Amino acid sequence: MVKERGRKLIAQNRRARHDWSVLDTYETGIVLSGTEVKSLRQGKATLTDGFATVDDGEVWLRNVHIPEYTQGTWTNHEPRRSRKLLLHKQEIERLLGKVKESGLSLIPLSMYFSDGKAKVELALARGKKAHDKRQDMAKRDAQREIERAIGRARKGRR
């Protein structure tokens, strides 16, 4: 049996960086059933509405959609069930303190296979207000204009 190496992206939450300002990221393992792994190997998952909570010293990933496996039978999983995330106890305690004290949230940024094991990149994030989103868009537009002007100058155009 040949073991896979490297990192294979399954799903990415592109909207997360637009709606949230990411303060810190964590790589976590995830507890899955067999049909969930098979469905993920087909590259199917949706992280858009997902979030994580800390309950009784355990971190749970909620509202992430992994569709039922097409070849599955009565043993198929529920698509939006809560899934346990695997972190060290010190990391969980640190996350719990930050989430409770400063009103931060835990948001999944991406889901991937790393050396054959399913992983979730979890972000400690603060929600952006509408004016923050507009400022970020203005910065991106200004940076894009600067890069265009530099490119035109390099080519000898105005």
From TrEMBL:
- Region Disordered: start-end pairs: 129-158
Keyword Cytoplasm applies: yes
Matching entries from CDD domains are given as: SmpB (cd09294)
Q: Indicate what this protein is called per its UniProt record.
A: SsrA-binding protein
The source's superkingdom equals Bacteria
The function of this protein is: Required for rescue of stalled ribosomes mediated by trans-translation. Binds to transfer-messenger RNA (tmRNA), required for stable association of tmRNA with ribosomes. tmRNA and SmpB together mimic tRNA shape, replacing the anticodon stem-loop with SmpB. tmRNA is encoded by the ssrA gene; the 2 termini fold to resemble tRNA(Ala) and it encodes a 'tag peptide', a short internal open reading frame. During trans-translation Ala-aminoacylated tmRNA acts like a tRNA, entering the A-site of stalled ribosomes, displacing the stalled mRNA.
Q: Does the keyword Ubl conjugation apply?
A: no
**Which gene underlies this protein?**
smpB
User: Any coiled-coil ranges, and where?
Assistant: none
Which stretches does UniProt call biased (Basic and acidic residues)? 133-150
Q: Sorted alphabetically, which keywords does the UniProt record give?
A: Cytoplasm, RNA-binding
> What InterPro entries does UniProt report for this protein, alphabetically?
SmpB (IPR023620), SsrA-bd_prot (IPR000037), SsrA-bd_prot_CS (IPR020081)
Q: Which family does it belong to?
A: Belongs to the SmpB family.
Pfam families hit by this protein: SmpB
Localization, per the record, is: Cytoplasm
Which PROSITE patterns has this protein been placed in?
SSRP
